[in-house]
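Friendly challenge for the regulars: who can give me the structure tokens for this chain first? No prize, just bragging rights.
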Amino acid sequence: MIGRREREGPLMRNIPHSLRKSKILTAVVIGVLIGCVLAFFFPNGFLVSSSIASNPRSKTQVKSAECESSDRVNMLKSEFVAVSDKNAELKKQVKELTERLRQAEQGEDQAQKQFLALGKQEKAGPFGTVKGLRTNPSVLPDESVNPRLAKILEKLAVKREIIVALANNNVKEMLEVWFTNIKRVGIPNYLVVALDDEISKFCESNQVPFYKRDPDDGIDTIGKEGGNHAVSGLKFRILREFLQLGYSVLLSDVDIVYLQNPFNHLYRDSDVESMSDGHDNMTAYGFNDVFDEPSMGWARYAHTMRIWVYNSGFFYIRPTIPSIELLDRVATRLSNEKAWDQAVFNEELFYPSHLGYDGLHAARRTMDIYLFMNSKVLFKTVRNDANLSKLKPVIVHVNYHPDKLPRMKAVVEYYVNGKQDALKPFPDGSE
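First reply, four minutes later:
Bragging rights claimed.
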């Protein structure tokens, strides 16, 4: 028995020791699991949560922290809105500055830029073969100037060309003769810039395309109440938008009778192509006039170049930088001076550069006086000449006579209805 105990003793003693180790290990595992559960449900600690729950002051602090957090969020939102508004304002300023920079770049060394745009520099050719540049490149269209007008022109214009007339209720009867003959000839690309509501309604009732500008006190007052000369001064400001949109405009007064489509008779090789107030080849196209001053003795004769003015009531103008500069110059002077728009138009177009003045570098062409005829040519010369009376002009502009409406109707009777004595009742000039 003693020997048996001695053999089994160590084994029997190890069994309870192993059980104790297993229990301790199990207890450790259970403790870790409980700790993980408590850590998950009480991230701030069990004691902290219980202290907050039992301490009203702590609850107030939590609520205060939440309020402060909410106020902070609101403050950040307001700051974000303020920053957004400021960014929008900065974007607007950047856009304005960019546009000014673009205009400045266009005005700087424009002649050289245009030359380079048309081709590389070349050597001069043989004698008699050299030809200078005559046609300035068109500006890049900018529809942001007037999106509404851009849509109208897109529908009406033919090859980016359009006839434009300004009218208010004072010229309603002449306007009717004007668009009636345009329709008869079959000209599709024309537009009336209506300066008052009466003309808008009149055009609409007669299926005449029209455009009513957005309200502008400075323009509307003159447009609605002004006479022929006052309204004529507005066209230089209004036409600018047409050119900026990239369209060539045949500007037309309403005291004009259309007998053919004028777009079939234009050269389009100049910035401005205009009818003349001249009454023969010399006065219309220019001549060498000799000024005689006997007191000068040997140098008594001084040669001068003369030309009768372009008519500012009928001209074709292309969308080029010189053309837009011309409109700007004339509009600026008319807003500051009490002057006749046609005189200012010609001065800016023809005066050369000299001390204290930079002349306009614009190409110009004079229209054929027997195709684009003024009323002096018609009533003083053509109707009394058997050969000239057989010609059919493109248009007749009743610009020399105040009795415009009856003479316009007589022109229609003579050239359209074939009434040979329709022009006879009228004197050469005005009474």
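DSSP finds 14 helices and twelve strands in the chain. The first helix runs from residue 2 to 41. Your move, everyone else.
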